[in-house]
Amino acid sequence: MIKRLELKGTPREIGEKHGREGAKQIQQSLQTYEKLFYGYHRISWQEARARALAHLAAIEKYDRQLLEEMEGVAIGAGVDFEDILALNARSEIALTGRKDLSFADGCTAVAVTPPAADQTLLGQNWDWKSSQKESLLLLHIKQEGKPDITMVTEGGIIGKIGCNSAGIGVCLNALITDKKSEQVPIHLGLRAVLNSWSLHEAIANIKGGQMASAANFLIAIDEGGGKTMAANIEVSPFGIEVITNPDGTLVHTNHICTPTLKQHLADLNEFKHEDSLIRKSRAEQLIRMTLTNKDRIDEECFKVWFSDLFNYPNSINHYANERAPEHRRTQTVFSIIMNLTKKRMLLCVGNPAIDRYKEVSQHDGN
Fold this sequence. Notes:
- This protein is of the alpha+beta class.
- It has twelve helices and 14 strands.
- It has a single domain (100-360), classed as Penicillin V Acylase, Chain A (4-Layer Sandwich), CATH 3.60.60.10.
- Helix 1 (11-21) runs parallel beside helix 5 and helix 5 (64-77) packs across helix 6.
- The radius of gyration is 19 Å and the shape is globular.
- This is Isopenicillin-N N-acyltransferase-like protein.
C-alpha cells in the first residue's frame, strides 16, 4: 500500500535511512517537482535550487537539526543537499510570488472534538499531482528528547501530515498567494509542530512570521481525560490567525478565511468561488447532517465524508479535471484519518472509498 520506514537515531542517521530506503520515492519527487516548477513558473531545476537556498540561513537559526536531517537524506539518496532543500521548500517555490499565478488546489481537512464527538478525530484528503502517489512514504520517527512521530510524506520531505506520541496531529491546506519571505518553509513548520509536546509549543514554533509562505495548519491535541482542542491556524510571513470552535467542529479547504491574512496577501486560488468554498460548505453540511440526525461521529463518518462526490470532479473526493492543463490537474492522492484519543491512524492511498481505508500502526515492530 505504502512504503514504511522505521527511523531513529540522530537527525543525520534518521535522514540517511530515509534517503537510502526511500531513494525511489525521492527520485519520483524530484521528477515531479522539476516538471511542476517549469510548468508553473518556467524555471529550471537549477533555479529552483537557488531559490531554496534563500531559506538556508533562516532554517539554520530556527532548528539546525532540520538541516542535519536533510543533509542525511541527501547522503542516503545519493543526491545533492540542494535537491532535498528544494523539495522541502517546494510550496514556497511553486505556490507563491506571482500575482498572475492561478491554480486550483483541493485539500479538505476536518477536525471533530468534544462536545461534537466523544473522541478527538482529525483528517484530510490530500490532493495533489497523481504522480506523487508513487512518492509516498509512511515514516515512524523516534528522536531523543522529542515525541515519536507517525507521518505520511512525499519522498525527501521531512515534515508533513501526521501525529505524535504526545497526542498532537496536524493537517495541511495550501494557500496560494502572491507573497513569501525567506523564512522557514511551511513543510519544516509542519515538522516542528510534530516535534512539539504541547499545543502551546506547536503554536510558538509557527507564529510571529516564522513561516515563509501562507498555509493552514489544522492542529488537534488530545491530552487524555477529556482535555482536547483543535484549531485552524493560518500561518503566513506576516503572522498567524487562529480559528477555534467551541462546538467542536472545524473545516478548512484552500482559501484564506481570516482578515489578518487578507490584509497582507492576495488569494490566488483561481477556483476559490467554485471549488474551495463549495468543498468547505459541503464538509460543514455533512457534519451538520450527522449531528442533526444524532448519529455518533466516528472514523466511519470521516470515511463517508472524505468519499463524498458532490460537485465532481472538484469534490471532497477530488478527481483530475481533464479540462485543466496537465500540470495543473490534481486529485486525491491519499486520505488520512487520525483518532488522537485512541492513537489510531487510518490511511487510504488514492481516491478514498469507505472499504479502502487500512489501519496503520503507530508503534515500531507492529
